[in-house]
Design brief:
This protein is of the alpha/beta class. The chain has 8 helices and 12 strands. The chain has a domain of 135 residues: 3-Layer(aba) Sandwich (Creatine Amidinohydrolase, Chain A, domain 1), CATH 3.40.350. The strands form 4 sheets. Strands 4-3-2-1-5-6 form a 6-stranded mixed β-sheet, with helices on both faces. The chain is elongated, with a radius of gyration of 35 Å.
Length: 223
């Protein structure tokens, strides 16, 4: 799954968000941008660099998944919050970030205070809304191809209708195969004279006629 161009489109949207870089903390957005499926990570999207930070549990997974997604990012492993803070603060200073965007819908008030006081004290923090989500609303070529493949699989797995006919020769509509097999195991219908009452054994193709002045007779349709 190639997602490398998504970070390019995100960088183009930073100007409208009035920030120099974006710290992505929403794991769903991180997966969209990098292909990473773990539950703990942060991604700093600067003008010339992507810095991906996670803990030691995801060292190999992050390396493999970002490589499979063709994402060119610097992967840093922070054993604790202090190490991750140092990595991101250094990356922000190296990129010359003056205004750092935070995902306002994913960052708590306590996190915002900590980012401002401890992580990025020299940087102006900018609340952003829907920057990555706006990109996700427009499906790229890879997503469209996967949606098409999923639809084809669903169509292939759907039961196919089978047609059955009634004894009168009229179309009886369609029914699943299991239902048709139950119907085909039933005995052939018999015709009953409405006047005299006895059943007349008849094939499914037979018809009968009756009048009050003449005995019942059957007329079999030639085969």
């Amino acid at each position: 799954m190639d997602v490398a161009d998504r970070s390019v489109r995100l960088r183009a949207a930073l100007g409208e968000a009035e920030c120099d870089a974006l710290l992505v903390t929403n794991v769903t957005n991180i997966r969209y941008l990098t292909g990473f499926t773990g539950s703990a990570a942060m991604l700093l999207v600067a003008a010339d660099e992507l810095v991906f930070v996670t803990d030691g549990r995801y060292r190999d997974q992050a390396t493999n998944e970002l490589a499979a997604a063709l994402v060119d990012a610097r992967i840093e492993i922070g054993r604790d919050a202090d190490t991750q803070r140092e990595v991101l603060a250094a990356a922000s200073a190296r990129a010359g970030v003056g205004r750092l965007g935070l995902e306002s819908e994913s960052v708590t008030w306590a996190q915002q205070r900590r980012f401002g006081d401890e992580w990025f004290p020299q940087v102006e923090l900018v609340p952003t809304t829907g920057v990555v989500e706006g990109l996700r609303e427009v499906k790229d070529a890879g997503e469209i191809a996967r949606i098409g493949a999923a639809s084809a699989m669903a169509d292939a797995a759907r039961p196919k209708p089978t047609w059955r006919s009634s004894s009168s020769g009229r179309c009886g509509g369609w029914a699943p195969k299991a239902r048709r097999s139950r119907r085909s195991s039933r005995p052939a219908p018999t015709a009953r004279c409405p006047t005299t009452g006895p059943a007349i054994g008849a094939s499914p193709r037979a018809t009968w006629s009756c009048s009050t002045s003449a005995p019942c007779s059957t007329a079999t349709t030639p085969t």
